[in-house]
Amino acid sequence: MSAAIIDGKSVAARLRAAIAADVAGLPYRPGLTVVIVGEDPASQVYVRSKEKAALAAGIAGRTIRLPASSSEAELLAVVRGLNADPEVDGILVQLPLPAPLRAQPIIDAIEPSKDVDGLHPINAGRLVNGLPGLVACTPSGAMKLLAEAGATLRGARAIVIGRSVLVGRPIAALLTNADATVTIAHSRTRELAAECRRADIVIAAVGRPEMVRGDWIAPGAIVIDVGINRIADGTLVGDVAFAEAVEVAGAVTPVPGGVGPMTIACLLENTVSAAKARRG
Ligand code: NDP
Known about the structure:
The protein is α/β, with parallel strands linked by helices and 280 residues long. It folds into 2 domains: 28-111, Leucine Dehydrogenase, chain A, domain 1 (Rossmann fold), CATH 3.40.50; 136-259, Rossmann fold, CATH 3.40.50. Helices cover 42% and strands 16% of the residues. It has 10 helices and 11 strands. The chain has helices at 8-24, 41-56, 72-84, 103-109, 121-128, 137-148, 168-177, 192-197, 242-248, 259-279, and strands at 4-5, 31-37, 60-66, 90-93, 157-161, 181-185, 201-204, 222-225, 229-230, 236-237, 251-252. The strands form 3 sheets. A 6-stranded parallel β-sheet has the order 1-11-8-7-5-6, sandwiched between helices. A 3-stranded parallel β-sheet has the order 3-2-4, sandwiched between helices. A two-stranded antiparallel sheet has the order 9-10. Helix 7 links the parallel strand 5 (157-161) and strand 6 (181-185). Helix 2 crosses helix 10. The radius of gyration is 19 Å and the shape is globular. Bound molecules: NADPH dihydro-nicotinamide-adenine-dinucleotide phosphate.
């Protein structure tokens, strides 16, 4: 048996084209401002691709670059200025912040209706309560790939490996809201392989190269690999041993080319829905 490969790149391209068409029909230009502090090279790459993707979709994307030496008060002042700016519909502060800056006070300061990363406790709480709000981008992208794979969520056994605020927790909430029976696994979970083998849907969001082996996966299960790990030879691999998973799963996302491209597309989607909600 060979699994279907879920092509995140083409799903993301379709979503971005649909967003661009939607934006073209709006009487205003939605605005997305990304704030980056410091020079972390990976973050610089992410921020550039976010701005580029925004502009390509007709969104007024711009980046505010602050020195690594910025104080919390300075960063808070920038966020408050964006909260008050009527041209800004979406605010994203690129994480991680350089030490000693703390992320939580900054996230807490973002106006929830502009929180296109979906990380503000109000948006995270609304998600858990099953209320509408802005949903974190990677989790929302993972759900779209499940839909693309034709997964039936109602009544399905799903396991989410990883419980981070950014990925694992919101995915578990989305799956619960979609009527799946959800197990949240983490570093203290006992008999993880056996837990995983019971699942119809496996979401791996751990950050450990190829931890989920083929014999952890039930035949026919749908596997979404959120992990992005750079290994010694410089290549990118996921949290799932892809070559093994392909032999047993019903469908699986590749890394790269799976969840990764969906994240930015969902950021653009959030920006447009934030703009519509605010501007009517
Ligand atoms: P975190 O490090 O914040 O969380 C990792 C989670 O995995 C924690 O809950 C941790 O458990 C759990 N974990 C660690 N080791 C084990 C283990 N041996 N067995 C079971 N669970 C374990 O990572 P993120 O959630 O931010 O990211 C996860 C992965 O997703 C990374 O590879 C990251 O690069 C990738 N990522 C990809 C994105 C994309 O766009 N595709 C976006 C964001 C992240 P505990 O809570 O007990 O410590």
